[in-house]
Predict the structure.
Amino acid sequence: MKYQRSSALFVEAKQYIPGGVNSPVRAFKAVGGDPIFVKEAKGAYLYDEDGNKFIDYIASWGPLILGHAYEPVINAVIEKAKKGTSFGMPTEIETQLAKLAVSMVPNIDKIRFVNSGTEACMSAVRLARGYAGKDKIIKFSGCYHGHSDSFLIQAGSGAVTFGSPNSPGVTQGTAKDTLLANYNDLESVKALTNANKNEIAAVIIEPVAGNMGCIIPTDEFIQGLRELCTAEGILLIFDEVMTGFRLGKGGAQEALGVAADIVCFGKVIGGGLPVGAFASRADIMNQLAPDGPVYQAGTLSGNPLAMSAGLAMLTALNNNPEIFTSLAKKTKYLHNGIDEVLTEKGIAHQINRFGSMISVHFTDKPVVDFSSAAEGDNDTFKKYFHGMLNQGVYLPPSAFESYFLNDAIGYDDLDRTIAAVKTIF
Ligand SMILES: *Cc1c(COP(=O)(O)O)cnc(C)c1O
């Protein structure tokens, strides 16, 4: 495949945009080479500026669960746009989407819309702190909750010390309120709660992790985390920006059978437009301005175009819940196919899968947390990524990302994908 036009566009982009991209992972730094520039997409396929066609396993990093340019979403946005794009005043469609989301997701009474997953998580933590009257939070190594200051924290020495920032620009003052635990390791959480009695407002977690590859929580860990939070009076925040409306109508809460106190959304809830949201029971949500003292706002929050895309998307999912089962079946088919090829070729690998999320790790040890994910062989991953790309399969350009299947992908696409793996190794 040729990527001449993409490469030329990247050179120009780098002149005006830092790194040529508006979000770092797009730049292919982890896999080498230049990113491809998309011209358009339809259903399961992406078409780049050089005329190449790819089966897409990213779906805009999750939102497009029904495939690209899904007609009910596109039509809803076009019709809405004709009536004006933003008012800064209440509109009926905000309540329609709120009502539908609340009816689909367990344990939430009210929801507030924002413009991104980052905003959702940032605001959820502020709400938790305001409600609890405590400053500290616990997050897990390798979980991503957007790029706001409190979340860009790495471990210091030992799990019980304060976190230190992993980006310049995040202050020590902010970092000291974020404590870091290990995924699937309840003891690491208990050590932190014991050392910080009555100081922790919330634990935030990706209930099925998707930002260190796909990592599944053990029942013991996730149930234990719920019990620990209840016992210690700590709010449990599920960051369902990835899993919400992807693992099922009720997201990870429903799939895992564990209740969260606050839930964050993004990605699917916006149908491909910029929407995030956070939700909880009424007594917690009523702490938000204008009813309560916890401030949170947004000029474009609840934007009518974004709401119409979200409403069309959630309506489709709510009316056709068999989509979730059929996506999970396709993902299992892909899992089995890739597994068979890699086993045959003697390539050390682990495949993690939950619903329509899946990741391939080139290691012989189970991948259960950030450090085991980091043990994957990146040279093999690069070879795999570029080999697949050159055969028209677009995978996430980093070993630390999950694939997201979309409903437009057919079994013929999956067979082509599996056949592509065969030619690489
Ligand atoms: C994508 C993601 C975010 C951030 O959402 P943005 O819309 O990129 O700001 C937060 N949490 C999780 C789990 C995500 O996958």
